[in-house]
Design brief:
This protein has 13 helices and no strands. The protein is mostly helical. The protein is globular, with a radius of gyration of 19 Å.
Length: 292
């Protein structure tokens, strides 16, 4: 199995894990402020990963990695902060819809950072993938789509989406030969703690971590270990091989994976219209991934 195929498998696993985080996050929502939950995730994940520094090699790499980790985590954190602030004045449906712009934003940014080009047929494929994803998000309901409108929260989330696109760009841009990925993941998480702490102070967000107890703590551990540490590692490893455009193209598959997970765990049906949307977004994403 060559490195490219391995990278695609890694991103597929990461996308599935992130899809599962929507289900888990839903059970934690409303307990404490979402920004505080995100920082809690980062703290737990950092503590779990910290024993890697038993190895002298990893300690030696830390100082040269932390500066880049702070930059990468800045865009990673801005996305989460922007999303949570946006949800104060917009809906989950609106943010899910706008998030379909991230792959196209990434492709445009690749022109600026890596001098890559977008051909007309590539734009068509991006649009088809976006349409398929929107069909899944709106559950094939044309009336819901026609009533979609932008508000102040949506404008905040568009900035968050740009930040997510920049996150994938800087994953590739700041990679250096000889990097130890676990150290880079740790540095990204540590940077995330710093940025989240500053955001909490600026926005006067209370910690209230004591409210996360019992079964909720197990859900928190799942978010921290599986959907934070593991997905960060998988994304950072895959981005080196696949590049930013292909990495973000998997975004189109996320709503479909959420739909299947909800079908499996919550017994919610998938309508024929939604299946068409899943098929469209999947085929278009595969075409994007197969392009050089």
């Amino acid at each position: 199995m060559n490195e490219t195929i391995k990278a695609h498998i890694l991103v597929t696993i990461a996308t599935l894990l992130i899809a599962s985080s929507f289900l888990v996050s839903g059970k934690l929502s409303g307990i404490i402020d979402p920004i505080s939950i995100t920082m809690y995730r980062f703290v737990i994940a950092t503590l779990i990963l910290s024993p890697i520094f038993i190895k002298k090699e990893y300690r030696a790499k830390f100082l040269s990695t932390i500066k880049r980790g702070l930059i990468i985590s800045f865009f990673y954190s801005i996305y989460f902060i922007g999303m949570f602030k946006a949800l104060e004045s917009t809906t989950v449906l609106n943010t899910s819809t706008l998030y379909t712009l991230v792959p196209l934003m990434t492709a445009v940014l690749c022109i600026l950072f890596f001098k890559e080009k977008i051909k007309f047929n590539q734009l068509v494929i991006y649009c088809i993938a976006m349409i398929g994803t929107l069909i899944v998000i709106f559950k094939a309901n044309l009336s819901s789509f026609l009533h979609f409108s932008l508000n102040q929260g949506d404008l905040i989330f568009i900035i968050a989406c740009v930040s997510m696109a920049l996150y994938s760009i800087f994953l590739k841009l700041l990679h250096k030969e000889g990097d130890v990925l676990l150290v880079l993941v740790f540095s990204t998480l540590l940077g995330g703690i710093i940025w989240m702490f500053l955001a909490m102070q600026f926005l006067s967000v209370p910690f209230e971590w004591g409210k996360i107890e019992g079964n909720l703590l197990y859900l928190m551990l799942y978010l921290s270990i599986v959907t934070t540490v593991v997905t960060l590692f998988l994304y950072q490893k895959a981005s080196i091989i696949l590049g930013s455009k292909k990495l973000m193209a998997y975004t189109y598959l996320s709503p479909a994976m959420v739909a299947f997970l909800v079908y499996i765990f919550d017994n919610q049906t998938i309508t024929f219209g939604v299946m068409i949307g899943i098929l469209l977004s999947t085929i278009a994403t595969i075409i994007i991934l197969r392009q050089k």
